Amino acid sequence: MRAAPVVDGAIAGAVGSAALNIVSYLDMTVRARPASSTPEVTAGRVASVAHLDLGPEEKASKRRAGLGPVLGYGIGIAAGAAFGLLFARRRLPLPVAAGLLGGGVMATSDGSMTILGVTNPRTWRTADWVSDIVPHLAYGMAAAATWRRLRPPSRRGR
User: Fold this and answer.
1) What are the residues whose beta carbons fall under 8 Å from the beta carbon of 131, sequence distance 6 or more?
2) DSSP 53
3) pTM (2 decimals)?
4) What does the domain layout of the chain look like in residue ranges?
5) Residue 153 pLDDT class (50, 70, 90 cuts)
6) Taking residues 76-104, what's their average pLDDT?
7) Tally of CB atoms within 10 A around 92
């Protein structure tokens, strides 16, 4: 199998990640809510588990602030690549693909943060769930639409 489906999936995942961030920033703007600290805390926990020294605290805090979003993009791009690998030969309906992509990224990121002790979804309020679900839906829709655009159905007779 050619690498093209994996690359196309990674591109779709990057587009989905951008959509997720845009929706999150719009939510912050509309509701005047602060940025979440979970990406930075997660980056710190991942660095700790990996025995990665981020330096003195002044520099470490800045590195965590940069690593948090990078980890998020990494999850989104990897999820798109995995989707490309798994569904290269199968055309899923757009809502199904969007649900799989958005739900998969949400489960991966929330599951990772839960395992690392950064958050506990069982304690989330409705507003917390909405703040998490809506951007992941945007990820799924943007990634699925991009995947579909990059991988049009083959035309018969060509």
Assistant:
1) 24, 27, 33
2) -
3) 0.91
4) 4-36+67-150
5) confident
6) 96
7) 17
